[in-house]
Amino acid sequence: MTVSFDHMIADILGISEKQVRQTLDLLKDGATIPFISRYRKEMTGGLDEVKIEAIKTQNEKLNDTAKRKETIVSTITEQGKMTPELQKRIEETWDNTVLEDIYLPYKPKRKTRAEAARQKGLEPLATLLMLQREPHPEARAAAYVKGDVKDEEDALKGARDIIAEQVSENERARNSVRNAFARQAVLTAKVVKGKEEEAAKYRDYFDCSESLKRCSSHRLLAIRRGEAEGLLKVSLSPDDDECTERLERQFVRSNNACGQQVSLAVQDAYKRLLKPSIETEFATLSKDRADEEAIRVFAENLRQLLMASPLGQKRVMGIDPGFRTGCKVVCLDAQGNLLHNENIYPHPPVNKPKEAISKIQKMLEAYKIEAIAIGNGTASRETEDFLKQHTFYQEVQIFIVSEQGASIYSASKIARDEFPEYDVTVRGAVSIARRLMDPLAELVKIDPKSIGVGQYQHDVDQSKLKKSLDQTVENCVNLVGVNLNTASSHLLTYISGLGPQLAQNIVNYRSENGAFTSRKDLLKVPRMGNKAFEQCAGFLRIPNATNPLDNTAVHPESYHIVEQMANDLGCSVQQLIADRELRRQIRPEKYLAPGIGMPTLNDIMQELEKPGRDPRGPIKFFEFDKNVRTINDLRIGMELPGIVGNITNFGAFVDIGIKENGLIHLSQLAERFVSDPNEVVSIHQHVRVKVLSVDTERKRIQLSMIGVAQD
Q1: How many CA atoms lie within 13 A of 209 on its CB side?
Q2: CA 40 to CA 52: how far, in whole Å?
Q3: How far is Cα 362 from Cα 384, in angstroms, rounded to an integer?
Q4: Strands 232-237 and 316-320: what pairing?
Q5: β-strand pairing of 207-211 with 186-191
Q6: Cα→Cα distances 36→5, 195, 520, 650, Å
Q7: What's 149-190 look like in SS3?
Q8: How far apart are the first and last CA of the chain?
Q9: What is the mean pLDDT of residues 442-462?
Q10: Comparing C-alpha atoms, which of 591, 598, 602 is closest to residue 553?
């Protein structure tokens, strides 16, 4: 069945059908989400990436439901049981739960107890019992004692099995139990006997019981992880007596012996069939919701991390600190190319501080280093102190940089391809230095799950997680834009319209023909067609290009508008960009045309104001408290500077310069009620916190921002 979902999607998302239709047409035509949100605002009514992604997702879900309906209709028709009323119900239903309930009585089954009873010829007896008029069902059951049916009780038992299946497949009965689960289901977790020691990290859930609808996503995912590891026994249950009573009111209509048989069948149906089925349904539903929440949190954290402030194109020294093995030092030029590497040993046990500082000074001078990036792992604070104790001949800023995922990158194929002749220590130090220069360009090389900003990322649906994180990375890369002449093939892969092959072709073309001087030259890259060019061109920047617009977010398809503006003012495009007074004379509405509305013209004007502007803010300098080195240095009431490292839906984890991160619980973020930590803090934000409690045994630190003045 071919169905247009525009109306349904519009209702679900609260937007117009036209917006949905135009967006789906663009997606069908091969346009990417970043391209549509940036360059097709007139067609979508200014929808952002989130809404466009939601349209795409809803359309996919409804298409999947449509395919499922085709299968259901085909199966029921083949059985010869399709009726016009049934067909109409299926066609009108778009709720998957309702659809599966309709289909359940017709669904081909494995050999069930009810099916076995039917094969013994006991269906008429079940029908007789359901009528509940026969005063002596045992006597009527005697007629069925033959073949595999041993006696009257065996016949009645088989009939009850058939009734139990009918009850479990009854839509009203299923909805009755479903409603009970929705209102009052209790999630219970208990430690598996004999595994108390092994399950120590799940101590909070050893004997836990709470309402499912009030159970937070992070608690539910933790409990389900404990269950998957075989350490916790978990169940979901409503009030069993109430559920059974409701079902008996629906099916038991007589006080006689037949009614008693039906009552027994109903109790069996609930315990053996209905309750386990609805429990599985709610376990899946609650897990899906928890997954969605965890994926949302992870995607938002990743977005904030990727959009962290860059130092920019500066000559940087990267240091991967260590004690026994020394510190690996690398020097990079302003484009991130490796110029030099060596080891220094400023710390015990080797302890050669004079030699180390001499080497550092020589490298600073030889490679004209402007900033130093130190990884935040082992020996980080000691290395920072060591450098700050010395005065260098030139001014150089020192930054502490997160190492999360650097070891994953250094052992990856991407790193081996970039630095085939160097070992993992050199690659790791390079990654640390590059993260300071441009976090986005470097972090895209690492699997987002290894960056350390997730919440139960290994427990959620991996395909949904990957899809969400890939889209987040793509949105961030395209929002910032990339330098066409310095971007790695991996970074280019995320640019709208490019994939791995085209990205590599661009890099190959660049190495064979030299730097690009014009966006038009992209059309000379092998396999770069007009569609791919349309999708990618606006997100690729060329500093010092022949045409100054090639270093802006103005799309080549709109260059003629800017050129017309310049002609009308009797100046060049370069002069228009450079002279604010000239730009103030422009009346954008004068350039309205079919397909060119005010959204596009406003974007062009903003871009001319700040051409190629990086949406990420300037980097801020930060220092940890010099007196705090280990968890033992902490005192309750102490106020400390820190950096937000991870955000969950129950609070934020803060790096305060020691091995263990502290937690600011949701309730300690502000004096007002906070439902989402992102209302108050963001990844990499510099904050001041107060120490509330320190559990040295469990390595847990509770922090607060309430009553603490923020810089």
Answers
A1: 6
A2: 11
A3: 18
A4: unpaired
A5: antiparallel
A6: 20, 54, 21, 34
A7: CCCHHHHHHHHHHHHHHHHHCCHHHHHHHHHHHHHHCEEEEE
A8: 61
A9: 85
A10: 602
Strand order in the sheet with 316-320: 338-344, 327-332, 316-320, 371-375, 397-401
* Residue 72: how many other CB atoms lie within 10 Å: 20
Q: What percent of the chain has pLDDT over 90?
A: 91
Which whole-number Å values give the CA distances from 165 to 174, 249, 255, in the listed order?
12, 17, 22
How many CB atoms lie under 10 A from the CB of residue 445? Answer: 18
DSSP string, 356-372: HHHHHHHHHHHTT--EE
Residue with tokens 């959204």: 599
What's the CA gap between 273 and 165, in Å, rounded? 8
pLDDT value of position 3: 65
Q: Which two tokens stand for residue 583?
A: 């730009």
- pLDDT tens digits along 133-171: 999 999 999 999 999 999 999 999 999 999 999 999 999
Alpha helices in 195-274 (DSSP H): 217-228, 240-251, 257-268
In angstroms, the Cα distances linking 129 to 150, 264, 386, 395 are 19, 11, 88, 93
* Residue found under tokens 């004999």: 194
Instruction: Give Cβ neighbours of residue 63 (< 8 Å, ≥ 6 apart).
Output: 5
Q: Do the beta carbons of residue 248 and residue 266 sit within 8 Å?
A: yes
Whole-angstrom distance, CA of residue 214 vs CA of residue 693:
27
